[in-house]
Design a protein that fits this description.
By secondary structure, the protein is an alpha/beta fold. 32% of the residues lie in helices and 23% in strands. It is built from 20 helices and 30 strands. A 7-stranded mixed sheet has the order 5-4-17-16-18-19-20, with helices on both faces. A 5-stranded parallel sheet has the order 7-6-8-11-12, with helices on both faces.
């Protein structure tokens, strides 16, 4: 795309966005999708340039993409402000009085912030950060409960050009220290505490412990009063949010920053044990989250959109804050656990606020199944029009339950695949266009050249397993690992030549071209010389009518190399027995083959999970190996689960 055409698009489409962004952009049929997808792959610069042009740019870009594998620069020479795109551009019309965030706290408090009110609070807190020494490109740690102020802090950083690094509120003091030291942060934004299952999580206390053990770069701690818990305030370092906010004005101009200006660092686990600081920049990341939110969620002005993720994860960044707010959506935000104080808390919220779009995690869906349909049937969920599942495609049985029980067999399901590193959704159905199929993420999003390769780099045929890759750059891709370009190259780009991104997931495609994600490449067992994906065995187990959830790990075996151990939770109304144990082993053998038959099946009332609902397979592996559970367990939701599993293991 030439510079002149780009400039014309920016002038014509940026500053007067249509009243409903998605109206003209929706894809109405599979044929239309295929045509648009083919064009986006043939000329990705034209597609992504048109999408970016719907955002507000203070200076048009000169070049859509500079690609020097594995380093990309998108919308080179362009300047924008991410906060302005999420807030200011919605204030010129009716949206200024539209709800931007509807919030409910775990104890039951309720708040609503319109776009105009949210803009005011973001400007005020941007001025608080500035008054406390934060400058452009300074790193700010955000360690908060899921309250509106968490999003306000993120958007305030973006407004100033500071780089935020959100640390999930369930993480330990060691996690805070390690991240602050790695990115040399200067400020921590936190709260006195947060609520989780009726208890107070001592956030400020954790920050104090982190700073006592290191992170000397931190000069200021800004503390929100959330629970009223007593905290120790260190003079000269610690200040209260409510005190600081009274000292500043509500005017904070949105300065334009280079498209490649760093927006945030989000740490994710790494095989070496040291978390990776995934770096995302401004223009490309916002283009990816804006565009995918528009097409995949088909966002409308009348929607109440609920992504159940915490802002401590990439899902919360992309699809709770930046994606929906850049589209002018109304976002629902809930602080607490889905089953507190009762197992119907989610369904009460949907009914009360007339939620139209629910985007949640596969682990949550499987937990809902375990709790039973009776908790759902008490509530009217007829407001829902679209359901979503994030991160890993859910197994077919859970998909069908989600569709039938939650969606009333009327709601499309967008079962999405993407990663912290990709920044935005990469593979997903488009509602009303691409056919859904339970268990698969279906087809790639526009401009995403996804493929499955074998060890030699040859593309796999239908139903041949291989490694999932992306063969050309995309705007929301990670730019590097903070402070470690060598690790960035080795982790994601070393496997195949020619600038091909290795996702780290195993996958296959069916005859219709749908992508089936079979699990992490490092979640593969070597059983008697055969490579066996744990996700495949888990999928076979949960396809049995009695099974609500399963986690499969390997334990050392002198003969096989690794033996298959399955931890299984049953649906309400079913009981563990030796007969069921044998039946489940036979069921797996029938579905996959004798090689996959579990050596051990352990029935358990619950699996060890993080507060975000992810199964902690590391703990299961340690339990299977007969060792003592070690390492950081502060993200564990319920410590009694591990003790119960260890006891059951000792009884085997």
């Amino acid at each position: 795309m030439s510079k002149n055409i780009e400039s014309h698009l920016v002038e014509e489409r940026t500053f007067q966005p249509p009243a409903e962004f998605s109206k003209e952009a929706r894809v109405k049929s599979l044929a239309a999708y295929r045509k648009k997808y083919a064009a986006s792959i043939a000329d990705p610069a034209a597609f992504w340039g048109a999408e970016a042009a719907e955002l507000s740019w203070q200076k048009p870009w000169d070049t859509v993409l500079e690609w020097k594998p594995p380093f990309a620069k998108w919308f080179v020479g362009g300047k924008l402000n991410v906060s302005e795109n999420c807030l200011d551009r919605h204030l010129t019309g009716a949206r200024r009085n539209k709800a931007a965030i509807i919030w409910e706290g775990e104890p039951g408090e309720k708040r609503t912030l319109t776009y105009q009110q949210l803009h005011r609070e973001v400007c005020r807190f941007a001025n608080v950060l500035k008054a406390n020494g934060v400058k452009t490109k300074d790193r700010v740690i955000i360690y908060m409960p899921l309250v509106p102020e968490a999003a306000i802090a993120m958007l305030a950083c973006a407004r100033l050009g500071a780089v935020h690094s959100v640390v999930f509120g369930g993480f330990s003091s060691e996690s805070i220290r390690d991240r602050a030291e790695d990115c040399e942060a200067t400020v921590v934004v936190t709260a006195d505490g947060g609520y989780r299952r009726g208890k107070v999580v001592p956030l400020k206390e954790n920050v104090d412990a982190a700073l006592a053990a290191g992170a000397d770069s931190i000069k200021r701690v800004i503390v929100l009063k959330r629970t009223g818990s007593p905290v120790t305030m260190q003079p000269g370092r610690d200040v209260y949010w409510h005190d600081e906010i009274e000292k500043v004005s509500a005017v904070s101009p949105a300065k334009g920053f280079d498209s490649e200006h760093p927006l945030f660092i989000l740490y994710t686990s790494g095989s070496t044990g040291k978390p990776k600081g995934i770096l995302h920049t401004s223009g490309g990341y916002l283009t990816g989250t804006y565009s995918t939110s528009k097409y995949i969620f088909d966002l409308r002005d009348s929607d109440v959109y609920w992504c159940t993720a915490d802002v401590g994860w990439i899902t919360g960044h992309s699809y709770l804050v930046y994606g929906p707010l850049s589209n002018g959506a109304t976002v629902l935000m809930y602080e607490g656990a889905p089953d507190w104080p009762e197992k119907d808390r989610f369904w009460k919220i949907i009914e009360e606020y007339h939620v139209t779009i629910l985007y949640t995690a596969p682990t949550a869906i499987r937990a809902f199944i375990k709790w039973g349909d009776q908790h759902v049937k008490k509530h009217d969920l007829s407001s829902l029009r679209l359901l979503g599942s994030v991160g890993e495609p859910i197994n077919p049985e859970a998909w069908m339950w989600y569709h039938k029980v939650i969606g009333g067999e009327r709601c499309p399901i967008v079962d999405t695949w993407w990663q912290t590193e990709t920044g935005a959704i990469m593979i997903s159905p488009l509602p009303g266009a691409t056919p859904t199929k339970p268990g698969t993420a279906t087809l790639p999003f526009f401009g995403i050249d996804a493929a499955i390769l074998d060890e030699t780099g040859k593309e796999c045929g239908p139903n041949e397993g291989g490694k999932l890759v992306i063969r050309q750059p995309w705007p929301s891709m990670l730019r590097s690992i903070w402070g470690d370009k060598a690790r960035y190259k080795d982790t994601y780009w070393k496997e195949y030549a020619g600038g091909i991104y290795l996702a780290g997931d195993g996958a296959r495609r069916d005859k219709e071209g749908n992508f089936w994600i079979v699990g992490r490449l490092d979640d593969v067992l070597n059983v008697s010389g055969h490579r066996l994906g744990t996700a495949e065995v888990e999928g076979a187990l949960v396809s049995h009518e009695t099974v609500a959830e399963a986690a499969v790990v390997g334990r050392p075996d002198e003969i096989k190399g690794q033996a298959v151990v399955a931890f299984v939770t049953l649906k309400s109304g079913y009981a563990a027995s030796e007969a069921l144990n044998k039946e489940l082993k036979g069921h797996v053998a029938k579905i996959i083959g004798a090689i996959a038959r579990p050596d051990d099946i352990r029935f358990t009332a619950a699996l060890p999970k993080t507060r975000s609902g992810k199964i902690m397979r590391r703990l299961l592996k340690e339990i299977c190996a007969g060792g003592v559970v070690k390492g950081d367990t502060t993200t564990l939701e319920d410590f009694s689960v591990v003790a119960s599993l260890q006891q059951s293991g000792n009884e085997d």
